[in-house]
Each structure stands twice: as C-alpha cells, then as structure tokens.
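Q: Sequence in, structure out?
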Amino acid sequence: MKLLLVEDDRSIVSNLTAFLNSEGFSVTAASGQRDAETRLAEGSFDLVLADIALADGNGLAVCGIAKQKGLPVIFLTASADETSVVTGLDMGADDYISKPFRPRELVSRIRSVLRRCGRSQSVVQLGSLSVDMEKGVVLKNGQVAYLSALEYRLLLIFLNNRGVVLSRSKLLEAIWDVAGDFVNDNTLTVYIKRLRKKIEDDPQNPRIIRTVRGLGYKVD
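A: Exactly. Output:
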C-alpha cells in the first residue's frame, strides 16, 4: 500500500517513514502543501496522512485535493486543534490521530480506514503461498508457515512493493532496529535465506523473492 505523508517535521518524517516501511507500507513524504499537491498530481497513492498545521499552507487544502481523487485521509494533529479537526472531518477526512501518538495505533487506524474504503487487499496469493495481512497468517501449501516477526515484516515490505526492485540498502533502511534487533548487510542475507526456506518451493531457485543481479530483490 502506498502512503503519502504530508509533514514538515523532519524528525517525525524520518521516524514514521522507517516504522511504516517496516510494517509493509511504501511511504512518500511531502514537506508542505505545494509539495503534496505536486505528488498527488504525479503519483498514485492509497491513503494520505496529513498534518493539519504546515509551514507551507495547511493539511485541510491537501485533504480537499485528496478527496477529489477519492483518496482516504487521516489527519495528524495537535490535540488542542479541535476546530481544525472538526473542519477536516466535515470535508470528508476519514480519521484523525493526535500527537504524540503511538505508531502501532496509527498503523491500526490506517488499516481500518483502508478496509472501510475497500482499498485493503487482506489476502495475497502467490502460487502456493497465501498471506492474510489482516490476520498475520502465512500459509504454504495450506500449512501454516511460522515466520519470525522480522521475517514477516520483510515479507510485507516485498508484498507492498510488488514489481519494484528493492535494493539491499532500501531493505536495511526499512527494517533496521525496528524489532530491537541489529540488522546489518550480512544479517539481511541470513533473513532472506531463512524466509526463502520457509516460503519457496525450491529455496535454491526462488520464484517468489527473486534476485535482480546487481540491483536487489523483487517480488512480481
């Protein structure tokens, strides 16, 4: 799922992008209203996360554009900004969450909004592999494949970026230290090997997570 994050606080953008990537979302950041307008015009997204108060314009204007495109919107807002929240909801915003928020609560709200809007594909089928992203269950030939938390996050990242070649540095950026584990280049190799062993028919000749020589990995 592709998210547009409209936020001018660089620290929030950096931390939230890393966390959402680790949860399997593909995040594009926009620093203000004009940047968001450009990205909405040029790109395709499944949901917009927008701070109401922006140094450049405001999230309400971004919400209006997003709703014209039929995109769900969740506001990130200061708890005292009640009037703006009401205005945003009246404009058609789908939810809001007050800062400071717990990242996992935000992820829960994102998935809830995506389900309500019919944009969530809860079950993904890849040959003999079935992944229920709502329940967090992975089946291989009808049998449960028991993945570690980091292996499952890695699989979600691939599934939410199907058709995109993900470099090793991009994967490391998405999963590094999110689970409290130190992940370096060698560790990433080990996790991909373990994941392939659990989901591929023939781990030595993978058909799901394919290596793109010199570039990275891709799931079609």
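The chain is about 40% helix and 20% strand.
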